[in-house]
Amino acid sequence: MSDVIPKAASVPGIEISDIRYDSHGYPVPAYLARPKKTGRLPGVIVGQEAFGITDHVRDIAAALAGQGYVAIVPDYYARTGEPKPRTEIPAILSAIDRIHNPAILRDYQSAISHLVKSGLCDPKRIGTMGFCTGGTYSMILAIEQRDLACACIWYVSQLTYQQLNERKPYHPIDRAGEIRCPTLFIYGTADQVWTKEKVARLEANLKKGKSPSTLRAYEGAGHAFLAPDGFAYSEAASRQAWPEALAFMRRHLG
Questions:
Q1: How many domains does the chain have?
Q2: Domain that holds residue 77
Q3: Any idea what the CATH number is for the domain that residue 45 is in?
Q4: Strand order from edge to edge, sheet including 151-154
């Protein structure tokens, strides 16, 4: 199996580091990948998959840096503790349930502020790319952050929640029409999260809100099909989807 996304260590002309940045007094741990060149560059807030900031997620951030973007991956498990072990779905679902969505939204918005205040990024050219549960948080950022340049959202895991509460105050699918930035939703037709009913509901809400969003389905692909070490990896779908995602980001971020 050849790599659709190169390993982080093999990407030339970039710098990678583990950092912490301030979010309303909380030091958020994050992974940062950036081009070595200086100047205010376009930036991407990367939403990690549900397994955490894995090697796959680091590879994605490094690949984006190789394309000229400053990519930052805030750790949305940091405030409540990672699932242990992170390889077991029940532990992961329990950890996700503990996450306070409004706090993570603030952390993502603070990541934008960090990139701008540190002089790394052009404030008018910052977008997001998220995967799985990170796709959920990229979607929430796109709903709430009206000046976001674009959003590329891969197989959102939580279009809806089993119940709403202070940690999960709304179903992202119901506010999809509020997205104002160009947005590309990517999913596979064999993804059990993306049922026909939810796809129709999402399309209806996007249309009702006149959101500049597009849905792109990959035939036969399952959930998290881009992850090479995952249970549903599809090399064929990945080889189509990744270049299309990069082209989308290029159109809107430069």
A1: 1
A2: 8-253
A3: 3.40.50.1820
A4: 14-23, 26-35, 70-74, 41-47, 121-131, 151-154, 183-188, 213-218
Residue 34, domain member (yes or no): yes
According to the model, what pLDDT value does residue 91 have? 92
Which residues, other chains included, contact 55 with Cβ-Cβ below 8 Å and sequence gap of 6+?
7, 8, 229
**Does the residue 190 lie in any domain?**
yes
Predicted pLDDT at 2: 56
Report, as residue numbers or ranges, the catalytic residues.
132, 191, 223
Longest CA pairwise span in the chain (Å): 46
Q: For residue 3, tell me if it sits in a domain.
A: no
pLDDT of residue 184 exceeding 60:
yes
